[in-house]
Amino acid sequence: MKIRFPGLLAEKLPSGATRYRVRVEGDKTRRIPLSVAPDHPQFMEIYRAARAGLVLTPESSPEDRAIRYSIGWIAAKHLAAMERDVEAGATSPLTLKKRVGVMKVLTERYADYAMVMPQAKLIELRDEFIATPARADSIIEGIRSMYRWACERGLCETNPAAGIARIDTGRGGALPWTADDLRRFRAAHPAGTTPHLCLTLLMFTACRIGDAIWLGPSNETTVQGVKALRWQPSKRGSAEVTIPMLPPLYRATRAAPVRGKTYLLNAKGRAFSSPDSLGNMFRRWCIAAGLEGRSAHGVRKAAGHLLAQEGCSQYQIMTIHGHTQAQTSEIYTKGVERWKMAQAAMAALEGMEW
């Protein structure tokens, strides 16, 4: 099968081997030798780079392999910077994992496009995922963050993703658990089991699953004579959380047959390796209890709603959830407070003669 690529030259050497060179597009006098043959997995990107006047080797980084000032180039630089942030502890590995997925979607379609693309193209990309609006918005947010990062470092001057509207209708995200859901789960997973401990930990700390995998005895402390848990949530921008360790959680942590540096241990007696690994296992526990569609984040939301129903203010809920902005916790108190105000208002009408 004869291979035909514009500008690709195949030359037979005296030794019998074939040497491949590429004429640079726009400069026919310049020829760049290729370090790989057409059957190499990276041949296409090395060939395209040569056509653009760049010399690459198979060992080159993604940033070096991309066409300079292209979408692929800025995406590779952004991910490389995020990897350094993860190593420095400034960004969570989960955030990096999500951003890698966003960059994959972007570069699969526009890797060789000019770095600052028309906003209309990004809107087309968003609308491509309209069947899954939350994902569509997440993709645009990731791209917006990439351009924000690039603008701050002088790599570009405009952010084409700025101002693109969200399309998620805000259906509430994870479904909050009901009291009946909690009872069904505990009936299927009694005290002393890892599922029971996991649910108890999530419910009585309202922690995120990313924190649940590493919380353990080292986070226990005493505040004014009260047993408490103290931790710094891993989500960037969260405030430190210090809450009383209520009896149900204390009993659950002591009932585990195997105990380690973390409260939650997998079947091998080790800490869960990632939030995803615990999240997947938690969904299996839910299915075993007949609770399909439930998630760990739904327990956190349930805790917020129950706190609000018991009369806690949004600022009190902020301290439990680690929020630093009042509007984040307002979603739990808004409906409850409106009902209380409605009750008070209607009480004023009770004495009216009608």
Notes on the protein architecture:
The protein is mostly helical and 354 residues long. The chain has 3 domains: 8-60, no CATH class; 71-152; 179-342, Orthogonal Bundle (hpI Integrase, Chain A), CATH 1.10.443. It has 14 helices and 6 strands. The strands form 2 sheets. It has a 3-stranded antiparallel beta sheet with strand order 1-2-3, with helices on one face. Strands 4-5-6 form a 3-stranded antiparallel beta sheet. It is elongated, with a radius of gyration of 28 Å. Residues 172-346 form the Tyr recombinase domain. Keywords: DNA recombination. GO terms for molecular function: DNA binding. One of its GO terms (biological process) is DNA integration.
Query: At the fourth CATH level, what is the homologous superfamily of the largest domain?
Result: Intergrase catalytic core
Please report which band the strand proportion falls in: under 5%, 5-15%, 15-25%, 25-35%, 35-45% or over 45%.
Answer: 5-15%
User: How can the largest sheet be summarized?
Assistant: 3 strands, antiparallel
Intertermini distance:
94 Å
Task: Provide the low-confidence segments as ranges.
Answer: 320-324
- The helix/strand order is EEEHHHHHHHHHEEEHHHHH
Domain Tyr recombinase: 172-346
Keywords: DNA recombination
GO molecular function, one term: DNA binding
Protein name: Integrase
